[in-house]
Hints:
The complex is a heterodimer. By secondary structure, chain A is α+β, with helices and mostly antiparallel strands. In chain A, 39% of the residues lie in helices and 37% in strands. The radius of gyration of chain B is 27 Å and the shape is elongated. The longest helix of chain B has 22 residues. By secondary structure, chain B is of the alpha+beta class. In chain B, the strands form two sheets. In chain B, strands 1-2-11-3-4-9-10 form a seven-stranded antiparallel β-sheet. At the A-B interface, strand 3, strand 4 and strand 5 of A face strand 10 of B.
Amino acid sequence: MKILRLLIFILILGGAFWLGYTHFFPNDExxxxxxxxxxxxxxxIPEKKSAVSTIMSLDQxxxxxxxxxxxxxxxxxxxxxxxxxxxxxxxxxxxxAWARYNSxxxxxxxxxxxxxxxxxxxxxxxxxxxxxPGEKDFFFQEFRAKLKKKDGNWRIARMEPVKVFH
Amino acid sequence: xxxxxxxxxTVQGDTEKCVPLWQRLLIGRRPLVTLLRAAVLAxxxxxxxxxCFLPVRITGISMEPTCHDKNFTLVSRLAFKxxxxxxxxxxxxxxxxxxxxxMKRIVGMPGESISIKGGVVQINSEPLDEPYVKYRxxxxxxxxxxxxxxYLVIGDNRGMAMEQHEFGRAYRNxxxxxxxx
Lengths: 166, 181
């Protein structure tokens, strides 16, 4: 009985240690997932956003991208393909979107991460969903994102749309 | 002796009666049993929605008049576990996952040559009878041959402009399941 209790205690202790370790020292995949969560949160704008929080959000969004990031977005309805080159252009686009709409909700869904053997680059598949609170219609696009690690931080270097139908 | 047992029985009976109605309705007479039931039910629901049935809200008009915008349906993930997708099945096609999916009808099967002439789908140069298509625009699509693992999926609403209607070839592994209604 004593051995059983000891075993249970060791198991619980081991589990708690493992949970703590993975929380404070996440692996690359978890870091990338957290980065996408942060990006979705900071790119969303609630109805009443103060100037300070807007600046903080912009800073957060900026920290998720490489300075020379390349992003391509395809609009299925207008048959348009838009390209964004560089972080500055992206920030301008985001600010313009924020100015145009009172509130936007950005969600990054179904993220899968494949870290390259070098551990310095990674590829992610994800679906970005943009909606306006209170409206049921939304825009979505599946992306393939290339990420780079610099100083321990993962940043998006390239995002290109993925066609579901070919 | 007689008095004691009489008192005990009375107290027990009173305790059972004293459980307020709201408590009985909310957590039952035995909270632990209720908790256990709720946990089992929650686990079953999670398992069912993950591996058996996906609840889906339809957005858009590409499947009109079969599926209406903002309606709900269930997608069976088990439908193609032991069976292969068939022509005419309404299927859910995944994106990078299953949070957002396309709902389309299978029109072309692997290995077939498909084209659309004047809004009519041609399979191996034979027109396909599609009773579910109520509105038709004169869509044109050049002939293409589907691969061994490819299906051609299109929505039922052919009254839309072809450029506004997302359709095309999907691999078998992109098909998540079959819509139940």
